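Example record

One chain of 302 residues, shown exactly as stored in the release files.
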Amino acid sequence: MLNLFGEEINKLKYKRVICPSTLKILRETFKYNKHIEEVILNEGLRYIGCNTFIESSLKHIDIPHSVIEIGWNAFRGSDIETVFIPENVKKIEDHCFFECKNLKKAVVNAQYIDRCSFAYSGLEDIEIGQAVDILGDGAFVSCKNLKRAIISAKNIQCNAFLDCANIEKLEFTEHVRRIECDMPKDQEKVGFRNFNGKLQGKVSTGFEIEFYEGKQNKPYLTISKEEWLQTVQNARQQSQSYWQEWELLTQLYEKKMQEMAATDPNIKRIWDDYLKCRDLDDTEKTADMPEQNVEKEETEGR
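Predicted structure tokens for this chain:
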């Protein structure tokens, strides 16, 4: 494994470094470096390894499209201010941007974002692209400055937005298929664009939920806080599990949509599209189930 310049780079007070075109791997190269501000990474670089920029004074970096993995703690505690991660990156390992207090904006398209990747950072604005398959546990834990989050990850794991007390806009796009995380408490509005198919997971109560189609600014359906709280209360009186709350939201959505579709042609069109997606999801789930040996079961039953 090539470690660019080894320990020697930190002895030189460079503010800007250009990596050679032949470099394939970086690992622990600029760790604790309090002089570096910008590094020009070469196209052809494959790995940004663990601890590469940990607690350094790095402010700016462009991730080449050739990079396929960013290691754990790679930028942890650095002075980086903005970051764009292209979809060629297959994985961002855990705590990659942990405690980056100067980080304000990030656009991430990596396929897998590991746990606590941006936790305790200064993030104000985050966009998670549709190329992301998994947004890991506690991805944005205690990002106190986070105000805007646009999420298109297919699967969102637990505690993604835990203790994000100041978030103003949290929007899930039509690409989201599964949510396992609690929503921020006391959140007034959470937008779901193109609520197609059955999303699964659990949600916190205490906010109004709006549903959007495409890029329309006006929601076609709103579930009030009162309706939602009443639905949850009724379910708990019937001893249904808290983990079933998302299924309850789905049922409430379907009930209201069915009623509105009877009188509004535009709502009927959205409702028909929803049913197609839902039925397709059910078909795929059935197809994924292992075949049962019916003949064997009949034989055993005789």
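Notes: The mean pLDDT is 78.
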